[in-house]
Every structure is written in structure tokens, then in C-alpha cells.
Amino acid sequence: NNEENNLILLPNYFIMNKINDNLEPDNIQFEKKKSKAIWRFKDCNPIRHKKRIKLINTLNNDFFDIKMVGNDDAVNPLYIGEKYRLSINEMRNYKFLLDSDGWDAIFWKLNSKSIVVRFNNHLKTITFIDKYLKEDVHYINGDNKKNLEKFLKNIINNKEDCNNMIKKSNELIKIFTEDFMIEYSVNLIEKYFELV
Burial level of 74, CB count in 10 A (0-12/13-18/19+)? Predict the structure, then answer.
């Protein structure tokens, strides 16, 4: 219904700072990371997380490592379990970090020395960071590649392009200060109520 298809996700600077404070610096250079794409998440709401469910059930292989640490009947039981839980620091050991919905995880992913691969969300979701993210500058759009696995394996060899994307992603994150978040949240709420 319309209530489920129109969401506004406000940035929480304090949560983002808490996540960042608990992280060790990502000192592993891209070329030394594991040549795989990884994603871990806790749950799959059947309405909000259709893309998660599709990806975990269809994309998993030796290159794409997508697992859920919660429990859901819509997900292949082979890909579910507490045994798959990884910390953020552990996930940053991989060259590619997958992402779809929400905004909290995208922050630490962009602030790593890995490349973010985002998938489009079927919901009309407004997130604070979408205004600033640029495809093929800060991240790779996983939906726009005919053979995503082949594409990612090929770009591994282009170290200059990979490191430029990582550098620009890291620079983008620096603009999201506390004052910025407060001002942007107010503007976002005002814009939302103009639309609904």
C-alpha cells in the first residue's frame, strides 16, 4: 500500500558516530583485500526488503557471499544463521561491499577502502545520502551491469580507477557533520510534507 511504499529515512548523526567510533581504521589497501563481494544483514521484511530476498536467494555463489544472521521463511535456509555473523571490521576485508536499502550501513561502507555496490530499492525511499551519491563516482550500481560478477572481476585489475572511487567515497563522507545533519533533516522533512 502507499504507506509502505513511501518512506523517509532521517540521518542519525549520533548512531553514525557511534558506529564510526567502534571501528578500527581500514588500513587494508584495496588490492590486498579478498576478491569477493560480501553482504550481511539481520532481517528481511517481506514488503520493505524484496531486493534483499531476491539477491540472497539468487546471487549467492563463490564470488557473492550474501548471508542473513536472523531468520526468515522467505530466505533459503542455506544462507541463514548466526554462524554467518561478521563484524564491520571483518566485512571490510573484502574488495566489494554490497548494499541496497536503508542508510546506516552505507555510511561505514563508503568510509572504507572497499568499493560499494548498490542495488536499486523498489520502494520510493528518500534517504539523506542519495542526493550526494553519484553512480560510477562513489559506488557501482549492481542493477546496471549485465554480468555483474564479470564486471567486478574485471575492474579489480584497474587499480587506479578502483582507488579513485574509494578516495572520492571517503571524501564524500567527511561532509556529513552534526550541523549538516540537523539542517538537512529539517529540509528533508519540509520537502517530504510538500510531496505527501
Answer: middle
